[in-house]
């Protein structure tokens, strides 16, 4: 068959690839957008008023595009996919005719016995030119229409999907956001400034802060007052709960009632609602755990057992077993992990995070720049302005300091690798993965020694390599997580002590010095670093921001943001610190209750895996070795054999054992990850469970089987 016959199919693939490439290539996206607006912009604008829900979905999803542009691009993509679908339809009907033109007798010989009935579809008589044209046209129209309509529907469904996800994240972060607003209002800060500060800390307070940033943009760009900006934001928000809160907030601002009292009431209501929401989410997780055990542990075990029995009694069932073990089982577990991450994200926003960059001290502006740009404490400004020559010298000095800090961090990491791995557990993969791959590659030539590929030569190396990688990561991550949890657990005590000392009249800097000598566990070392920064000339706000960048959890970021912003508003921080302490304690209590409730389902996953491992071990160690290698003779000495019990060869038994071994490895790795995700909401916490299950599988097959 000539390659030119596939040229239209290549064109169809190129049309579909335009949509994917436009997302990563700005120039191509600009060209397609201009073409779409030129072709379909007028049509979309003409019928704009008939689809207000689509406009609302685009605003709620915060898509940086207009309705006219998005609608025109949707029409263009639908046209491209319709053309590509029509081309694919030609090849579909062409291939179908080629298959059906095969002689029924030849099809019956090639097909397995169970599929022999499909041979009756063969032997299609030759069609006339008119019939062929009609058939091809029908296929083009059908598949092309389906492809175009599917692309059109998906493009308009996607904004609603994104908006629904934003609504869930807004409602999750709303309690902490309201607590932040309440604490700043008690510090004496005016409300517009509170909104602006909240909008600047979107990384800390999530989607709720992003909603307030829209109100700030409306005030700064379009000149709206704060009431109108909040009303507009509430109407366009995808979260009904946020819209109700904004509506009540506007009513309080217009009536002149106490803002602090209103925010305190809302904070308590949202906290109670968070507790009830967590209970419902835990119940959902329990249902999901039971469904996982039934569908992805007991179900595959049942199918494996049935296929083995069928293979012993009837014939070869290796292909269905391979499809189940290497395809269905991993994909099913991975899909469950993805869905579980969406569920647990509503109760564990943020979680334990690792530093993603090296921006620590280098992110702090230089003292020269601070002295030049900021006013003096007495209210004046620095009169001395450096010359161009002096400014160039200062800039060179700043660059030297930055390079020195980078080299210093590199030297510290290399000089203390254990501390580096504890702070950044994922760096362990940089060391362990190459070692594991080298061990597998070292065994790989032996697997190809006999002209074929013997998977049993390298499966032990793969299993031990995976165990090595997962175990080292689990050790580093557990040390990191326990340190972070110890710091977060001590934060409420720290805030309460700071509040009591500050309430007694001590300044914030002196309060830090007074409290750092108390027993706060790992947080004491961080307080010493904060005090060292202050002693070396940094202000308390900068020292606290460095502390937040070192720990990098959502809880510490919220505390640092609240304290630093409250310090700018007033020196009396006792009330703000008390509110922050109560919020941190409430978050810790919810996390502890969730962990206690999920231990039950963690045990269920372990028991399910033990049952899976026990059944597989019985099949591999006791059933297969005791089967006869030849057919079972019929009773009565007739010399015949019983149909369906032809025995099991040694080669088949070895293949079954290999498949059983791989099934336990796959199930152990993925079940461990799911167990950790169920118990903590973070799939990385499942590394220790995955390591334990992998080790048990390897040990059991090495000793028993």
Automatic annotation (TrEMBL):
<feature type="region of interest" description="Disordered">
    <location>
        <begin position="351"/>
        <end position="395"/>
    </location>
</feature>
<keyword id="KW-0472">Membrane</keyword>
<keyword id="KW-0282">Flagellum</keyword>
<keyword id="KW-0966">Cell projection</keyword>
<dbReference type="Pfam" id="PF00482">
    <property type="entry name" value="T2SSF"/>
</dbReference>
<feature type="transmembrane region" description="Helical">
    <location>
        <begin position="427"/>
        <end position="449"/>
    </location>
</feature>
<keyword id="KW-1003">Cell membrane</keyword>
<dbReference type="InterPro" id="IPR018076">
    <property type="entry name" value="T2SS_GspF_dom"/>
</dbReference>
<feature type="transmembrane region" description="Helical">
    <location>
        <begin position="461"/>
        <end position="479"/>
    </location>
</feature>
<feature type="transmembrane region" description="Helical">
    <location>
        <begin position="321"/>
        <end position="340"/>
    </location>
</feature>
<feature type="compositionally biased region" description="Basic and acidic residues">
    <location>
        <begin position="386"/>
        <end position="395"/>
    </location>
</feature>
<keyword id="KW-0812">Transmembrane</keyword>
<dbReference type="InterPro" id="IPR056569">
    <property type="entry name" value="ArlJ-like"/>
</dbReference>
<feature type="transmembrane region" description="Helical">
    <location>
        <begin position="75"/>
        <end position="102"/>
    </location>
</feature>
<feature type="transmembrane region" description="Helical">
    <location>
        <begin position="133"/>
        <end position="154"/>
    </location>
</feature>
<feature type="transmembrane region" description="Helical">
    <location>
        <begin position="598"/>
        <end position="624"/>
    </location>
</feature>
<protein>
    <submittedName>
        <fullName>Flagellar protein FlaJ</fullName>
    </submittedName>
</protein>
<feature type="domain" description="Type II secretion system protein GspF">
    <location>
        <begin position="495"/>
        <end position="619"/>
    </location>
</feature>
<dbReference type="InterPro" id="IPR042094">
    <property type="entry name" value="T2SS_GspF_sf"/>
</dbReference>
<feature type="domain" description="Type II secretion system protein GspF">
    <location>
        <begin position="181"/>
        <end position="306"/>
    </location>
</feature>
<keyword id="KW-1133">Transmembrane helix</keyword>
<feature type="transmembrane region" description="Helical">
    <location>
        <begin position="291"/>
        <end position="315"/>
    </location>
</feature>
<keyword id="KW-0969">Cilium</keyword>
<dbReference type="GO" id="GO:0005886">
    <property type="term" value="C:plasma membrane"/>
</dbReference>
